[in-house]
Specification:
This protein has 380 residues and is an alpha/beta fold. The chain has helices at residues 15-24, 40-50, 58-65, 79-88, 103-116, 130-140, 160-165, 172-175, 179-182, 185-195, 271-277, 304-315, 325-344, 354-379; strands at residues 5-10, 30-36, 54-55, 69-72, 92-95, 120-122, 147-155, 199-207, 218-225, 230-236, 244-250, 253-258, 261-266, 289-291, 348-349. It has a nine-stranded mixed sheet with strand order 14-13-12-11-7-10-9-8-15. A six-stranded parallel sheet has the order 3-2-1-4-5-6, with helices on both faces. Strand 4, helix 4 and strand 5 (92-95) form a beta-alpha-beta unit. Helix 5 runs antiparallel to helix 13 and helix 6 runs parallel beside helix 10 (185-195). It is globular.
């Protein structure tokens, strides 16, 4: 495709502004063509500030502006309808994380863009951070051998005020989940992308521990992977200070990432080999921890601008590292599996049953609405 790509942004009250700035940071690849928001005042202000047409509906924007690319920065329950509408119009899409609320919605989005021959990409900007890329390269390159254990801690703090400030937060209808759908998608993506592992089964626990919300504010899981590796993870909005840590242990050593730094230790003898030959009661492979030094990725982009940059390359048919919709579905599938297991009890197999999860979520939404109605009747 010759010339610049005409890009439009849908949902400009929050992350959409970041998308606009990312587009403007790539003037040789993109031009900002239009914005869209269902709030008239927001649409007017942003339209005037960036001197582009503003719309209140995606349908009108697609009809009148005919953009090449649309970025969807709306709440994730609206991602599916928006992405499918764009595919039918022959428009490429970059969608904020998570790709959707349910894996069945993600399926529809992916299928729609495959049929249309358009690109569907997901915003996982952490994949473009030099240190994260280097960790991924080491693991996939067999630096620590086949993964046998992986653990993720991804905790932060959100107050009651945070949840009350925006009505859809912490609700089944507005989010389809809690911390796993809102705060943890990047962590879940790193958990799967860096390890390169495929989830087999999940045993989860979810609860509203600290906040008066419908969905989970903390979750934990035991994950079994297809290669036999064991995984654990913890996510919450109840911890202060928050912790972001990932441990990956393989047959040859281990990598640990925490708070922006990473270290690696490689055993002098692989664990399985040492285990078979060791004749010492307290014997153990020897290893020395060293800092992981980030490699230069070869391009200057690091965050949302990197997402748009690689999307643009993919659209133009050039070599890219864009994040396809199928990758976005992986972390959502894990989140859905943990939620389903946590609230219903018992182990859940992956891929998650689309029918079962759809019925579960619909039941949760109905129950929440009944509860609100009863509360209103009592207080009235």
């Amino acid at each position: 495709m010759a010339g610049r790509l005409r890009a439009a942004v849908v949902g400009v009250r929050g992350m959409g502004i970041g998308h606009i700035k990312a587009i403007l940071a790539l003037p040789e690849m993109y031009e900002l063509a239009a914005i869209c928001d269902i709030n008239p005042e927001t649409a007017r202000k942003v339209s005037e500030e960036y001197k582009v047409p503003g719309y209140l509906s995606l349908a009108d924007m697609l009809k009148h502006e005919k953009p090449d690319v649309v970025s969807l920065a709306t709440p994730h329950p609206f991602h599916c309808a928006g992405a499918v509408a764009c595919a039918r119009a022959g428009v490429h899409v970059l969608v904020e994380k998570p790709i959707a609320s349910t894996v069945s919605e993600a399926d529809r989005m992916i299928q729609a863009h495959k049929r249309a021959g358009t690109v569907l990409s997901v915003v996982f900007q952490q994949r473009y951070q030099p240190l994260q890329r280097t960790i991924r390269k080491l693991v996939i390159g067999d630096a620590i051998g086949e993964i046998t254990r992986i653990h993720m801690t991804a905790t932060c703090f959100r107050s009651d005020f945070y949840y009350k400030l925006v009505g859809w937060r912490g609700t089944w209808e507005g989010e389809g989940g809690g911390v796993l759908l809102n705060q943890a998608p990047h962590a879940l993506d790193q958990y799967l992308w860096q390890s390169g592992l495929e989830v087999k089964t999940v045993i989860g626990r979810c609860e509203a521990f600290m906040h008066p919300i419908e969905t989970e504010d903390r979750a934990s899981a035991i994950v079994t992977f297809a290669n036999g590796a064991m995984g654990t993870l913890v996510a919450s909005t109840t911890d202060a200070p928050g912790i972001y840590r990932i441990e990956m242990v393989g047959d040859k050593g281990a990598i640990v990432f925490e708070n922006g730094k990473a270290s690696i230790a490689v055993n002098d003898v692989p664990t399985r080999e040492f285990n078979a030959k060791c004749r010492e009661e307290w014997g153990s492979p020897k290893a020395e921890w060293k800092d992981v030094v980030p490699e230069d990725p070869g391009y200057p982009y690091r965050s949302h601008d990197a997402c748009f940059y690689h999307l643009g390359l993919q659209i133009r048919g050039e070599k890219s590292e864009y994040v396809p919709g199928e990758e976005g579905r992986k972390s959502l599938e894990l989140a859905n599996a943990i939620i389903l297991s946590g609230w219903k009890g018992g182990s859940v197999k992956c891929p998650v049953s689309r029918r079962e999860y759809g019925e579960f979520l619909a039941g949760r939404i109905r129950a929440a609405k009944r509860g609100k109605k009863r509360t209103g009747e009592r207080s009235g």
